[in-house]
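FAQ

Q: What does a record look like?
A: Structure on top, sequence underneath. For example:
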């Protein structure tokens, strides 16, 4: 069964199991990129990276430390990969989504 563009976009950015943006916001990312899923995924990754870089630079609590700067770097790297793939991938192939990047975002489901 093929995914909708919205479901495909959410899967590519590790959304299943979390709610980073609303469906309306994801739909706007798609509309801004003329429904190009890879370009929209790049925009989402950059928006998430900006948020992570500004809000969660370094978290320390007791003996636990989480450095979210690495997450922001990975999201920016992913955005670059999506932009490069969008310029070389036929639109028909985008419907067969590759591996989601849930592991980078720490999303399990």
């Amino acid at each position: 069964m093929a995914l909708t563009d919205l479901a495909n976009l959410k899967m590519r950015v590790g959304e299943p199991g979390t709610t980073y943006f609303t469906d309306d916001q994801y739909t706007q990312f798609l509309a801004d990129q003329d429904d190009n899923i890879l370009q929209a995924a790049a925009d989402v990754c950059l928006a998430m990276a900006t948020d992570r870089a500004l809000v969660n630079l370094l978290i320390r609590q007791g003996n636990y430390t989480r450095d979210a700067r690495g997450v922001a770097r990975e999201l920016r790297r992913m955005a670059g990969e999506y932009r490069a793939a969008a310029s070389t991938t036929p639109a028909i192939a985008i419907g067969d989504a590759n591996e989601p990047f849930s592991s980078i975002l720490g999303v399990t489901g």
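Q: Is there anything notable about this one?
A: The CA atoms of residues 49 and 73 lie 7 Å apart.
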